[in-house]
Amino acid sequence: MSKVPAWLLPIADFRTTAVGEAELVHVLPDAPMLFEIPGAPRYCRKTLVWDRRIVPVMDLAVRFPFAARDSEMNPENSGRSTIGIFAYWAETAGSHEYGALLLGSPPRRCEVGNGDACRLPADWADWAHYTSSCFQPEGTRQAIPILRLDRLFSSENLR
Amino acid sequence: MTEANTITQLAQSGNFAALVLDRMELLLPQSDLYGLEPAADMIPALGDSVSIGQFQQGDRSWPCYALSADLAPLPQKPVDCRVAALIKHDQGAYGVLCKQVYMIEAGRLELRSIPEALRTRSSPLLALALFDGKVLCVSSAKVLSSRLRSSPQGAALS
């Protein structure tokens, strides 16, 4: 069965998501200069300049607060300094757009096939609208949702 | 107003004043500025308990505010604010304490729409701008006044 490459994105110690290979365009390992935007959502208050673009930087650990066993981590002080920049097709704009995510560590490559598909676990329910599917890497019991970047970076706060 | 119209109007509004605040720089069309005053000339506020001081000009006085990085009024004067930007208002002007104020020619700014993920209904911004490798926030006297009015502490502007 054929597999396709993807990137695993560690969001926090216990949570990993994924995107397609072509969606990750740049990883910034050193903390870049971030610019705060007044009135922006709490989970996306900062931007950075990349390739002469203003790119929003989103913290998924703040947007989807983690419960129970990983609540001892304070996502806002977790020392995450890796930032990934992603490209996605924005239907409303009719163009490719870019967004950045705070990551717990640099992305890792993996291969995903249809046979790895699994259901989105109940404790990821808040993410359902923002994921296209979920998979379990071979030999593991970890469920990894694949992100819908267009929905994550959309202007839903205007609804 | 569409985003493209907003950007076009801003680009045609002439030069901008950059107000250096806490952790951000706010751009206003220079035509929205009434003047600049040294922060040291600020006198105590009159009764309204929202502004942190006032400026007297002849027989008129203008309330003065300090703003957080979220453009909400602060209860006291930050230690490193040395200048007040007096901003035009329906009933005259009001002041905003800044670390620094400088002017930028319109042609040196690259105006950009606010990325979708950053937008909210109550945003005090009209656009963003690239300048000298930095992201600056663009607003106007009208939008900033509305923001101050709608804040829990903003009654003095109404």
Description:
The complex is a heterodimer of chains A (159) and B (158). In chain A, strand 5 (46-50) and strand 6 form a beta hairpin. Chain A is mostly beta strands and 159 residues long. In chain A, the strands form three sheets. Chain A has a six-stranded mixed β-sheet with strand order 3-7-8-6-5-4, with no helix packed on it. A three-stranded antiparallel β-sheet of chain A has the order 2-1-9, with no helix packed on it. In chain A, strands 10-11 form a two-stranded antiparallel sheet. Chain A is globular and about 45 Å long. Chain A starts with a strand and ends in a 7-residue tail after the last helix. Chain A has helices spanning 60-63, 149-152, and strands at residues 4-12, 15-20, 24-28, 35-36, 46-50, 53-58, 82-90, 95-103, 108-112, 131-135, 144-147. Chain B is mostly beta strands. In chain B, 12% of the residues lie in helices and 39% in strands. Chain B has two helices and eleven strands. In chain B, the strands form two sheets. Chain B has a six-stranded mixed β-sheet. In chain B, strand 1 and strand 2 form a beta hairpin. Chain B starts with a helix and ends in an 8-residue tail after the last helix. Chain A binds chain B through residues 33, 35-41, 44-45, 47-49, 52-56, 58, 90, 92-93, 97, 99, 152-155, 157-158, and chain B through 23-24, 69-71, 110, 112, 114-125, 128, 130, 133-135, 137.
**Quick one: how many beta strands of chain A?**
11
Structural class of chain B: mainly beta
In spatial order, strands of the major sheet of chain A run: 3-7-8-6-5-4
Distance between the termini of chain A: 42 Å
Q: Using only CA atoms, what is the Rg of chain B?
A: 15 Å
Mean pLDDT of chain A: 87
Q: Which strand-content bin applies to the residues of chain A?
A: 35-45%
Helical stretch tally of chain B:
2
- Mean model confidence by pLDDT of chain B: 88
Q: Classify the helix fraction of chain B into a percent range.
A: 10-25%
Count the beta strands of chain B.
Answer: 11
